[in-house]
Amino acid sequence: MSTTVLEERHLQLATQLREAAAALEPVPGEAENFEEIAKRLAQMGCFRHLIPKAYGGGAEKVEVRALCAIREELGYRSATADSIFAVQGLGSYPVLLAGDDDQRQSLLPQAANGSAIFAFALTEPEAGSDLSALSSTARRSGDHYLLNGSKRFISNAGIASHYTLFARTSEGGGGVSTFVVPSHSPGLRVSPIEMLGEHSIGHLTLENCPVPASLRLGSEGNGMRLALATLDVFRSTVGAAAVGMARRALDEAVGYAKRRHQFGAPLSALQGIQFLLAESATEIEAARLLVHRAAAKKDEGAERITYEAATAKLFATEAAQRAIDRCLQIHGGNGLVKGAATERLYRDIRALRIYEGASEVLKLVIARHLLAEPGR
């Protein structure tokens, strides 16, 4: 198959989800209920696509193209629902990659049916793009580890029942290990962080937090490799969410341009408006192709898609920011009214250019790949 298009089953998944996802759209003036959104995602069967059938999921293996189809539709309707879904995947995927059979049998079915909500606890106050600065520690004490440190900007914080957390068991680049930390663990405190848009996100503090050694994923020292392998899979799906948000902005702008009259004619008759719409549509289509190419390459068996995922996320998120900005401009002042779809999208898109690899870091990743493979 072409590595730039989805197969029929992925298109059908998107179609099926499109109508159901409408119920997830935020109601202007009402605070979002993060736990309720997680329950609805579980009822819609979204989480099952994050887990293989052997552990209660929906397909023989996790298909990145299916995740992209889901995130595009969720992004179109609700950035909050999209984030909760994505982080459920980020938090559970390391269990699939490195967990033993007991860990997989115990944790993954709960992730698939939504009875457990996962978070991915990697970022720290002094360790964002620079993961080598990670300073949280895990010290072995008998059949437990004692975890100390802090994590920041952890999505699903507050609603998560399990935190897939990365901490140092020794110094050096290979000294990071991975643990599944239950939310009720003594010594773990969760503090919410208010962001630009509504988001279930917070700060974790760990003070001599005991975690059974049986909840370490894989061997000591595999944490950084496991984190990067997980990001390698999910990074392209961020681009899919960005495409969904930009699609929504474009649909809103097209509808408004047809309805709104100025100077005796609809805005859509103005060449300047037509150019804004055309530029946005073209960038959205190009972004979707890059995202689908990266996802398809992973589904076809590639061990790593670092270059493809980086180009997809970089272009898609930056293009979506531009498209949403153009579409808001078409609305004029009406696009800035609190509760308007354009106003919400303008706030929600901004984080996608930062998390799971800031645009500037992705440019470095892409450049290093090109320099390591001359003549590409």
Q: How many DSSP E strands? A: 9
CATH architecture of the largest domain: Up-down Bundle
Q: What is the name of the CATH topology of the largest domain? A: Butyryl-CoA Dehydrogenase, subunit A, domain 3
What composes the largest sheet? 4 strands, antiparallel
The overall average pLDDT, rounded, is: 95
* CATH superfamily membership of the largest domain: Butyryl-CoA Dehydrogenase, subunit A, domain 3
Structural shape: globular
Share of residues in helices: 40-55%
Strand adjacency order, main sheet:
2-3-7-6
The poorly predicted ranges are: none
Cα-atom radius of gyration: 21 Å
Q: Helices and strands: which structural class?
A: alpha+beta
| CATH level 1 class label of the largest domain | Mainly Alpha
Provide an overview of this structure.
With 376 residues, the protein is α+β, with helices and mostly antiparallel strands. 49% of the residues lie in helices and 15% in strands. It folds into three domains: 8-117, Acyl-CoA dehydrogenase/oxidase, N-terminal domain (Butyryl-Coa Dehydrogenase, subunit A, domain 1, Orthogonal Bundle), CATH 1.10.540; 119-221, Butyryl-CoA Dehydrogenase, subunit A, domain 2, CATH 2.40.110; 224-372, Butyryl-CoA Dehydrogenase, subunit A, domain 3, CATH 1.20.140. The strands form three sheets. It has a four-stranded antiparallel sheet with strand order 2-3-7-6, with helices on one face. Strands 1-4-5 form a three-stranded mixed sheet. Helix 1 (8-21) packs parallel to helix 3. The longest helix has 37 residues, at 223-259. The model has no long low-confidence stretch (mean pLDDT 95).
